Amino acid sequence: MITLASALLGVVLIGPVCPGPEIEGKPCPSIPWAAVRVRLSPEGELAGRQPLEVSTDAQGRFSAPALGSGAWRVEVLVGKPTRCLSQLIQIPRPAGAPPLTLECDSGRR
After folding, report:
1. Contact in structure between 72 and 102 (CB atoms under 8 Å)
2. How far apart are the C-alpha atoms of 17 and 62, rounded to whole Å?
3. pTM score, whole prediction
4. 3-class secondary structure for 14-62?
5. What is the pLDDT of residues 29-81, one digit of tens each?
6. pLDDT band at 9 (very low <50, low <70, confident <90, very high)
7. Percent of the chain, pLDDT > 90?
8. Of all helices (H) and strands (E), which one includes residue 81?
9. Measuring CA to CA, which residue among 90, 87, 84 is closest to residue 103?
10. Please, which residues have CB within 8 angstroms of residue 60's CB and are 6 or more apart in sequence?
11. CB neighbours of 15 closer than 8 A, spacing ≥ 6?
12. What gap in Å lies between CA 104 and CA 84, rounded to an integer?
């Protein structure tokens, strides 16, 4: 039996996005990445179930509906040169856990 947990909330950030080389003393923070696809793939005991794909909104936020309890791999679906590390998470997340943040490297330098 699969136990459903609460929805997963997250945000996707991309950086650097400033033109040219980095300049000391002038930060170039990552920004929210809108309209990008995020895949949640079940792992471990949940393996074999269908992955779920969602899109980020204008503020880079995403929400996945109630997921089965267990291990899930979360990844941003992008092409090169952008690189985004996937994260392995456990559902349910600890009470009060902040939204999941996925950081992507734009490849700009």
Report:
1. no
2. 21
3. 0.86
4. EECCCCCCCECCECCCCEECCCCEEEEEECHHHCCCCCEEEECCCCCEE
5. 899 999 999 999 999 877 788 899 999 999 999 999 888 888 999 999 997 77
6. very high
7. 50
8. none
9. 84
10. 11, 12, 13, 31, 32, 33, 34, 36
11. 28, 29, 30, 31, 103, 104, 105, 106
12. 4
| Phi, psi (degrees; rounded to nearest 5) at 55 | -115, 150
| Locus of tokens 């700009």 | 108
Q: Which residues contact 91 (CB under 8 A, 6 or more apart)?
A: 5, 8, 67, 68, 69, 70, 71, 72
The structure tokens listed for 86 are: 């996937």
Q: Which amino acid is residue 61, in one-letter code?
A: R
76 and 12 Cβ atoms separated by less than 8 Å:
yes
Between vectors from CA 105 to CA 88 and to CA 23, what angle results, nearest 5°? Answer: 140
